[in-house]
Amino acid sequence: MKRLILIAGLVATAPAQAAPAKPAPQLVADGLRLYTYHCAPCHGEGPGHPGTAALQRKYDGQMPALLADRRDLDGDMLRYFIRNGVNAMPYFRKTEISDAQIAAIAAYLARPRK
Amino acid sequence: MSLIPQGVSPADFAAALASFTTVVGADWVFTSDDDVGLYRDAYSPAWDEPQERRPSAALAPASVEEVQAIMRIANQYRIPVYPISTGKNLGYGGSAPTLTGAVVIDLKRMNRVIAVDDKRHFAIVEPGVSYFDLYAHIQERGLKVWIDVPGPGWGSPVGNALDHGLGDTWGIYRNHFSAHCGMEVVLADGTLMRTGMGALPGSDTWAEYPYGVGASVDGLFAQSNFGIVTKMGFWLMPQPEAWCTGAITVPKRADIGPLIDFVNEIEHQGHCGEPFYSSPLAAEQGSPEWQALNAGGVFPSEEALDAFGAAKGKPWWHVRLHFYGPAEVVRAQWAAVKRMAAARIPGAAFEDGEFSPTPLPPALAQKYDPVHFGIPTLGTFALTARSDRNPNGSDGHLFFSPVIPKSGAALLRFQRVMHQAFRDMGEPPRIGPFTTPNTWMFHSFVVVVVFLVNRADKAVNQRLRKVFAQLITVAAQHGWGEYRTGPLFQDAVAATYSFGDHALMRFQEKLKDAADPNGIIAAGRYGLWPKHLREQRA
Ligand SMILES: Cc1cc2nc3c(=O)[nH]c(=O)nc-3n(C[C@H](O)[C@H](O)[C@H](O)COP(=O)(O)OP(=O)(O)OC[C@H]3O[C@@H](n4cnc5c(N)ncnc54)[C@H](O)[C@@H]3O)c2cc1C
């Protein structure tokens, strides 16, 4: 599973605070909308969300199972996963999610939090 | 760009791409390896092998006129094209073409909901409208209709129906192609055609009466390659006032016969929605008793299986029923089912289930699976994603999905025959005593087996493809045909439908040669190749 090892490496070496300090609120709002539409059906909270269940199993609490709680996923990392897929998560075509939209999702994940 | 279509010169391909660009704009012509790579089948069972079917480029038109212009250019340069709607056909080929080198026409941008009528109960949609989109459209407007969804909500009514996809609510709505009504199609030469009442200018019953007059040609556009569908109508179910559920169990193996006969009768009369069969004993496969009984992988005798069930104190079969309609009626239906089943099926027992007005509270819908209420989700990906049951997850999967009769005798025979087929190949049997049918189709069962693919280990995929091909053969020898399959197996599956020395395929070939003389649309889809490519049939 070369791909998985590569991903694990990426995750391990990612800087904790790679995101820009203050993403524009509009971009964050767009990102939330796109995240809710494209990602939350698998990465949402509660039963019936196979992405969340898989990440729980993968990291066993070492990382938040909920993608929306992650802080280590910057634009490059997100682009990597969205365009390459990972395990049972297939990649997305540009007609589904454009590069600009990936940036908005990244801004949402990098939103200021307590 | 690393691929160009077979038989097309680089100069012609470049000229065609330049013309396509004038039609759809440079942003919507994809030629770089990275961009075109996104059209590979993410779940391909032949990833990075020569057998994998790969596109050369992709185009994303925004309108019917652009699709027509694309077809005229494709005909001029004889460029093979392959239309997709939302392109989420994972497990059956993804967004990749059947013919390597074809240019994918990605209709995702054509995403208008043209109409939803909650008085006459139909919708008309473009190909890029997903089940999520259609559901949101209906919810936002408070319309009183349900849609019928397949497991994954990100697919489309159009793309799903055009591969004969299936869902989980009530009777006629679950078979998405047969619930469609009326199409708009761009033909190979760019002609725009409408079927059924759509052919009558000014008609407003396009999505209500399917035939118009004369030959019904809609079937030519599903699991086939006669045109690019740009609009499609679908009948919708009115939102029922209430729902309730209940389950019947029967103790012995052979009781599945009367159970299925009974459920068929009430279902085909319209008294319940999709039945869901399971075996409570499947959970006992880890027990020492089962390990002993199953030693060496044998299929135990029916008597031994009954004794195992009795020892475990569990019934062999369980069926959950869903009732939809007025509150008094759904309760009465379940009461009638219990009365009739108790009289007719020896040993039948009942589990009274829940009742709710619609819409169900979300937690309740989740408990019984939202697909039974026409609510799109992606929860079904739990089937193959990483979990305790499946700690490595998977790089996708392949569906084996033959059609069998809706009878207990057929199911028990299927279990034994297919179990033996695995053993004959030295494979751990994936079909056996606990296998139950899927009930998406109204008048037949389809039994689905999910095989995990592995991108990193080609040997796993190669073995899987061999096993899969053999399963197709053995099933067909017993009269069980695949209802649907991915590009890698479409030739093999189509060849099993061989009555009259392949009369059905020969007839389709005649039509294909007439309707698409350059053979540019979706060459090879379900075994139908244009003249110049017929020799390469697998
Ligand atoms: C976990 C899982 C569970 C699944 N469960 C189900 C299920 O319950 N029921 C079910 O039916 N499927 C199921 N599937 C299979 C598949 O995901 C769905 O059927 C999905 O809806 C198909 O993708 P799509 O709608 O995007 O169609 P597309 O991929 O867009 O289209 C499918 C094919 O139809 C043809 N086509 C599409 N659009 C056009 C057009 N406009 N003109 C001409 N030809 C066209 C093309 O050949 C295309 O390859 C499941 C898959 C997975 C991974």
Automatic annotation (TrEMBL), chain A:
Pfam families in alphabetical order: Cytochrome_CBB3
Keyword check for Disulfide bond: no
Cytochrome c domain span: 26-113
Signal peptide: 1-18
SUPFAM superfamilies membership: Cytochrome c
UniProt entry keywords in alphabetical sequence: Heme, Iron, Metal-binding, Signal
Protein name: C-type cytochrome
Biological source species: Novosphingobium ovatum
From TrEMBL, chain B:
Domain FAD-binding PCMH-type, residue spans: 51-239
One Pfam family named in its UniProt record: FAD_binding_4
Membrane-spanning residues: 440-456
Highest taxon above the source species: Bacteria
Keyword line: FAD, Flavoprotein, Membrane, Transmembrane, Transmembrane helix
Protein name, UniProt field: FAD-binding protein
Originating species: Novosphingobium ovatum
